[in-house]
Structure formats: structure tokens, C-alpha cells
Amino acid sequence: MLALKYLLMILGVGLFGGSGILVAYDIYIAARLRWLLEQTSGEPGTEAVQSKAARPFGPVRWRLALQLAAVGIVPVLVALSIVVVPDGTAGIRVSQLSGVRPGTLYPGVHLVTPLVDDVVLYDTREQVYTTSANAGNKASTEVLTVQAREGLNLGLAVSVRYRIDPSKLSSIHQNLPQPVGEQVVAPVVSSTYRQLAPNYVTREIFAVKREELRTQAAEMIKTRLASDGIVVREVLLRDIQLPAEYAKGLEGLLLKEQENERLGTEQDIKLKEVKIAELEADAQKARDVKQAEAQAQVRVLQAKAEADAMQYTLPLKEKQIEQTKLEAQARKESTLQNAEAAAQAKIIDSKAELERQHNLSDAEANRIRVTAAADSERMKYEAAVLKQNPMLIQKIIAERLSDKLQIMMVPIDGKNFFASDVMRSAFQGGVGAGSSGDDSEDPAPVATATAQRKANKRP
Fold first, then answer.
1. Does residue 454 carry a pLDDT above 50?
2. Adjacent-strand bridge partners of 95
């Protein structure tokens, strides 16, 4: 609708401008034509002046211009008759002829009489009027000071939420000063609190009757402003500023009262602790008595149960004793049988051991005989070998000493070789030994074998 209004306004202005441009253009063309005619007529004279007076000024389209202007008035008037009331506001129609017209224009599109009616808009949203408790706050906020019953000045920080009743805009516009918040709400709030504050002492306003004061003030403010078409939603008492000296004295008094309350509370706590201790002692005593009675009853029941159980336990014990005797007799017989069996086993083991030792002695004697025969046979073979090869003993000695010597040089004749003495002593021992035996045997192999055995026995 706003676009239509502006479109009609532009159209009307355009038509007015077109009519003016049309008239100006015709006048310009006529003046230009007259100038051209003057230039072509020659020198000015009597005849030229008469001909100029006889010629017309030129055709100007006044009729068409007036028609365009008349047509342009229509869209302008239609645009002026359209009024758009935005959200959060309401309006009233003020006539140039009859003044304020009844009825409220709510948000939306409305038609009014153009050039006669004027629309005045009011903000119908909630507004907040605020006062401060001291002059240290913002300069734009009014300082509200009241006197208590003692005559002390108190600063009150108050906030009032209100809005204008759209149905009473006509009365508000006709009767109330503008702006409503500063000229109507502020005086009502200040006068109400200044009227109620002297009914209370300072301490009551600050502490116990603060809410009562706020409630009474809110009721009075709502009643007084409702008659003027102002709806009060809420009245808040945010802060109370006490005089500096009274605040210090009140702080000391409150501290003393708090100390008194603390001492009283501690005394109550101590009394309660004593009472609790007495109750706990009585409870413990009752518990001990009950516990002793219960233990006595338990012992009586246990004695009765043991007496009853003995009637059945004695026969059972007798049977257990008899069973134990039988088990002991059985273990005794079993032990005797085991001892006899062990004795027989030892006799059998001793016989087997004797037989084993006898067999071992026979085997050892047999081994000795076989070994002696083998050694005798081996010695005979060695004597025969040494007899055939006398140099073999030197080889055997060299092999025995090979881990001690790296090189051994033996002369061919053997005169300087250390084994000569060994061989000589061996041969001599062999001859002495062989004289008692068989004379046909050669003593050299026997001595060689003896020397070889001695060499073998060296570590």
C-alpha cells in the first residue's frame, strides 16, 4: 500500500510538472517566432509597429495544461488520503475543521480526508520510566528523594513499566501534556512515593516493609494513571540509598544484632548438643540392657540345647569309642602282619645278597684269571716283537715323551741315548728273573716289556 501511495504521488507530481512544462514550452516557441518575424521585416517603422500589433502573440495550450493539472490533482489527493500506521503504534485523526475525531487508527492502512485530516501517531509499546537513588548515575535519569518518618532523606531507584491505552488516544491527545512519560508518569511516581514514605521509619523502608511500600505505591500509581489512559504493567523498587551517617550506624547495629543472633544460635546449638548427648547415653544404656538380656537368653537357650544334645551325643560317643578300639585292633594286626612280611622280605634279601656277592666273587676271580692269562700272553707277544725289533722300545719311549719334546735326535749306535741305561738295567733285571724260570727264553723281550709297562704307568 505504501508503494501505491508513493506511485500515485509521483504520478500527480508528474502531471503537474507536465502541465507547467507544456505552458513554458508554448511560451518559448511563441517568443522565438516573434523574434524571427522581427528579423525578417527589416527596419522598424510605423508600418512595422502596426503589423506587430496586428499579429497574434502565439498559440499557448492553456486548456490542455489546465486539464493535465486537474488530472494530476486526483492521484495526489488519493495518495494523501492513504495513511499507513506501523506496528507498535496507533494514531488519531485531527481535523482542521472539527479538531480530534473519535476512533483510533490501529496498525494497518486507513483512508482519511486529504488536506483536512492529519494523523498523529503514538507509541503503544511498553516504555520504562526510571529514577536513580543518587546523583552519581546518568544525568538523564531523575533522582527521586523522599523523607521517612524521622525526616531522613532517602534515595529511591524506581522503574515503572507502562504503555498507552490505544482506545483512549483521543482523550490523551486532548487532555494530557506531551511527552506523556516526562509530563505525566514522572510526577505521579514521585508524588506517590513522597506521599507514602513518611508512613514508615527508615529501617522499615530499608528492611522489613520494603515490599509493602512497593505494593502500595504500585496500586496507587496504577489507579492514578489508569484514569488518564496509561496502563501500568509493573512497578519495581530497585534500590534504596540511605544517608551516609545513618548507613554507618545501621551497619554497626546490624553487626551487633548479627553477633547477638550468632551467640544465641551457638547457645541453642550447645543446648541441643547436651540434649543429644543425654539422649545418646540413655539410648546406649537401653541398648546395653537389651544386649545383656539377649545374651543371657542366648546362654540359657544354648545350655538347654547342649543338654538336649547330650542325650543323643553320649550313645554316639560310645559308638565312636568302640569304633576307635576296633580300628586300633585292626591297625595292630595289620602292623604285625606287615612286620612279619618285612622280616621275611629281609631274610630273602639277605640270601639274595649273599648269593649275589658269591657270584660277584666268582666273576672277579674268573676275571682276574682271564686277565692274568691275557697279560701273560700279551707279554709273550711283546717280548717276541721286541726281540725281533730292538729299536721299537725307543719308538715307544719317544711316543710317551712326545708331549714333552718337540724334536728328538737319536744316534744310530745308541751310545749317547739316555735309554741305554734303561735298556741295560732292564736286560739285567730280565736275566735275573729269567734264571729262575725257563732258560730257553730270551731276557731281552722280558726287560723290554717291563720297561714298556713302566713307561705306560707314567702320567
1. no
2. 99, 117
Q: Is 92 helix (H, G, I), strand (E, B) or coil?
A: strand
How much of the chain exceeds pLDDT 70, in percent? 80
- For residue 413, the one-letter residue type is D
**266-291: buried (b, 16+ CB within 10 Å) or exposed (e) per residue?**
eeeeeeeeeeeeeeeeeeeeeeeeee
Is the pTM above the cut of 0.70?
no
Half-sphere exposure in the Cβ direction for 27 (13 Å, CA):
8
pLDDT tens sequence across 37-51: 777 765 454 444 444
Residues with Cβ within 8 Å of 436's Cβ and at least 6 positions away in sequence, in order, are none
**Angstrom distances, CA of residue 24 to CA of 61, 63, 327:** 10, 14, 156
> What distance in Å separates the CA atoms of residue 245 and residue 225, rounded to the nearest whole number?
37
The alpha carbon of 148 is separated from its chain's Cα centroid by a whole number of angstroms, namely: 54
Instruction: Check: CB of residue 141 under 8 Å from CB of residue 108.
Output: no
Q: 77 with 114: CB under 8 angstroms?
A: yes
pLDDT surpassing 50 at residue 279: yes
Is residue 92 within 8 Å of residue 169, measured between CB atoms?
yes
Which residues, 6 or more positions from 331, have their beta carbon under 8 angstroms from its beta carbon?
none
Give residue-wise pLDDT tens across range 157-180.
899 999 988 888 888 888 888 888
Residue with cell 725307543: 394
Torsion of CA 53, 58, 64, 65, to 10 degrees: -80
